[in-house]
Automatic annotation (TrEMBL):
Originating organism: Seriola lalandi dorsalis
Compartments in which it is found: Cell projection, Dendritic spine; Membrane
Membrane topology: Multi-pass membrane protein
PANTHER family: MYELIN PROTEOLIPID, NEURONAL MEMBRANE GLYCOPROTEIN M6-A
Origin: domain of life: Eukaryota
Pfam family, one: Myelin_PLP
SMART domains listed in its UniProt record: PLP (SM00002)
Record's protein name: Neuronal membrane glycoprotein M6-a
Bilayer-spanning residue ranges: 21-40, 80-102, 123-153, 208-238
Keywords (A to Z) from UniProt: Membrane, Transmembrane, Transmembrane helix
Stated family: Belongs to the myelin proteolipid protein family.
Origin organism lineage: Eukaryota, Metazoa, Chordata, Craniata, Vertebrata
InterPro entries the record matches: Myelin_PLP, Myelin_PLP_CS
Amino acid sequence: MTQNLKQQSSCKECCERCVGSLPWASLIATILLYMGVALFCGCGHEALSGTVTILQNYFEVIRAPGETLDVFTIIDILKYIIYGLAAGFFVFGVLLLVEGFFTTGAIRDLYGEFKITACGRCLTAFLMFLAYLFFLVWLGVTAFTGLPVFMYFNVWSMCQNTTLVEGANLCLDLRQFGAVTISEERKVCTGSEKFFKMCESNELDLTFHLFVCALAGAGAAVIAMVHFLMALAANWGYLKDASRMQKYEDIKSKEEQELHDIHSTRSKERLNAYT
């Protein structure tokens, strides 16, 4: 019995020491998530706007009339998705941060009036599922953002090495990227005036680096989700151990109360027998 008490006491002290770092882990993950989402949404939105300018000024692509699904409509849809990501992950980050602080407070106040419930453990498990799901989503977003970075890098490299490609007749055809239909011919060749104007303009260089920053922001969001998963898994483990400790303390208090009642009863019996 004494050995069990010592083990439970050591587990309690270990839990209290470890759980103190959980709010800071959640806070760091929240800051990293906000930085990544802000970088991705801001730079991605401006990069899409720069892409529209390049398509209209140098490739002479015009917006299709009506509700036809063209490259400009797809870009508008991507912008609305960015708006939704910014709003949704702001709320999600606040929720995870609050959960991290409340879970820590619940464990610290375990031996007071607060009691850990099954609802709290279910909430932590649900947030772990959401964090893992959003981790997969951000992995996909990162891979998708790498496509325009690769395409713009090729165009930017051609512009940076115009003297090397001057003799070669290389063309940038939008039909290869699915930006226009097969019947439309929208291309810019290396020897044309439009190609030199595009390379000398600020739109191409700025759009390329904005997409690079958006890719970095998506990568930061992935790291933040991994950090959140680690913090939530730690919270789940601490809650589970604290729940067992709570049951142990309840059983211990009942046994002590029973021993006290037995001792009081025996004392009364001895006093009655003496009198």
